[in-house]
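Example 5.3 — Tn3 transposase DDE domain-containing protein
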Amino acid sequence: MQTDKGIVLASALIEHLRRQLVILPAINTIERASAEAITCANRRIYEALSEPLSDRHRHNLDDLLKRSDIGKTTWLAWLRQSPAKPNSRHMLERLKVWQALDLPTGIERLVHQNRLLKIAREGGQMTPADLAKFEPQRRYATLVALAIEGMATVTDEIIDLHDRILGKLFNAAKNKHQQQFQASGKAINAKVRLYGHIGQALIDAKQSGSDPFAAIEAVMSWDAFAESVTEAQKLAQPEDFDFLHRIGESYATLRRYAPEFLDVLKLRAAPAAKNALDAIEVLRGMNTNNARKVPADAPTDFIKPRWQKLVMTDTGIDRRYYELRALSELKNALRSGDIWVQGSRQFKDFEDYLVPPEKFASLKQSSELPLGVATDCDQYLHDRLTLLETQLATVNRMAQANDLPDAIITESGLKITPLDATVPDAAQALIDQMAMVLPHVKITELLLEVDEWTGFTRHFTHLKAGDLAKDKKLLLTTILADAINLGLTKMAESCPGTTYAKLAWLQAWHIRDETYSTALAELVNAQFRHPFAEHWGDGTTSSSDGQNFRTGSKAESTGHINPKYGSSQGNRATSLLRWTRISGNGQDFSEPHHAAQSPALLRQARRPTARNPQQAARPAGHRHDHALRHPVRL
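Solution (predicted C-alpha cells):
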C-alpha cells in the first residue's frame, strides 16, 4: 500500500521468503505475484478514498468535470491554470472552490502519502475528458487526490504571498524612513550647527553673567529662533527612531485581502501562540460584524513593547496597528510552527509528520520499530549524554594542547583557520593545454556517452507505467533545458526537429524530483568507483554556496523581495537565491523549502555520504563552480 514499484515489491517478497526459509519460485512467478499485489493495492486505495464519500461529495466532484460558469473550460481545468496575475484575490477564488467540495475530515490519512501524491500526479497529467472515462471508484479517488493536493498547493501559495506582502510593506516602511532621514540630512545638519552656536552663546552668557535672551538675539532674531524651533520639531524622528509608525500608511493594502484571507484559513495553535490566534478570532468577528472598534477585552499579550505605543492609545486600541501586529504575529507563528493550517502541506500540524500514536504503540509492543537506535528513551539519552561528555572532554584536551584541526580556542572565542588555495599557479598552464586538446562535442552527445558508462537515464521512468523513455536524445534535451535554465520553449527553438509539445510531454511524465535524485546517485556512485576520483577525497567533506538567479520583473508585483540584493531592478529584486550543499564527490544536499522546516538543514548537512555511511560530511568552505550542475554533473 506504500509503493507501486515492482522492483521494491519483488525485493520485499524475496526477503520475506528467505526469512521464512521458503525456496524461491521462478522469477516470472515473483513478477506475476508483484503485479497482482500492485493491482489489489490500487483497488484498495481507490476504495479507501471513495468509500467515505456521500452522494453530495460525489456530485460536487463530478461538477469539477463540467464546464464552469466563468469561462469556456471545466472547473478542474480552471483550477489547474495559473492565474494571469498571481494575486491574493485569484488565489482565494480557487481555494474557495476547493473548500466548497467539503471532503470528509481525515480522508487524506486513509492512504499512504506517497500513493496519494502519485495518484494526484497521474490525474494532473490527464484531461477532464480522460478522467470522466474512468470507472467510478478510480475517478472519485483521483479527483479526491487532486482536490487534496490542489487545496494544499493553493493554501501554501496564499500564505506565502501574505508573507511576502508583509515583508514588502515592512521593507517599504523602513526604506521610506531611511530616505526621509537622508533627505532631511542637510536641514538637520544646519539646525545642529545653529543650535551649536546658540548653545555656545548661552554658555558664554552664563560665564559672564549677561542676559541669556540677549545672547540668543545676538545670534539670530527671536522670531527666527521661534521659527527654527518649529522646523526642528518637524524634522525630529520618534525617540526610538523606529519606522513602525509608517507601516500604518500601507494598511489599505492589507485590507484588500485580509478579511477573506483570515476567513478561509482553518488555523490551529500551540499554547505558545494561543493569544495570537485569539486576536485573529477577534478580527474575524469584527470583519463579520463590520465593526470598526476593537473590543476593550481583546487579547493584547502578543503585543510586544515595540508596538505598545502604536496599538495602545489614550482612546483605546488602535484598529490599524492592532490588525497589523496580529497579521505580523501570524506570519511569525506560521514560520515557527506554533500555528498550523488545516489542509496545508508546508504549514501542517507537527503531529502529522509523526507516526500515529496507535500505530507507534503497536510497533513498539511488537518490537518492530524501524529505528537504528535504542527504543528505550532513558537508555538512549544516557548513551548520548555519555558520548557528548566524552567528545567535549576530547575537544577540551585538544584545545589546551592546541591540537584542534584548522581551529584554535582562545579567551576571545573560536578562530577558524582560513582556507588557502590548493591549486598552484603553475597548474593554469596545464589547464589551458588540456582545454586545447579536448575536442568540441555537442553536450547531448557527451551526455549519451556518459549514459553508456553509467545508465543514469534508466531512472527517468514513466510516472504511470514505469517504462523508459523511447527517445534518449529527446530526454537528455529536456534535462539539459532544466540544467542550463533555458526553458522548454527556447530549447525547442534551438533544436531542429524538436517541438515544445514533445519536450513538455517528457518533462511531465518522465522527469521528477525523485528521478533526478536517483539518476544523480547513479552518477555519484559511478564517479566513486573511478580510480581518478580519489584525487577529490573520500566524499566526507562538503561545500556550500548560494547562487542568485535573475527572474522576470513580474515577480516584484507579487511581493518578492531579495533579502540580499534589495528591491530595485538594478539590484536584482526579482531574483531567486538557491542554497545548495555539495559533498566532495558531487552529491547534492537539497534544502527544505520552508522556514518552518529549517531544522532539517542541520540534519541534511550531517547526512552520511554514499561511500562512507558512518562518517558525515563536514563543511570544507565555499565553492562557486557548481551553479548549474543539478541534473547532471560531469
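Remark. The chain has 25 helices and ten strands.
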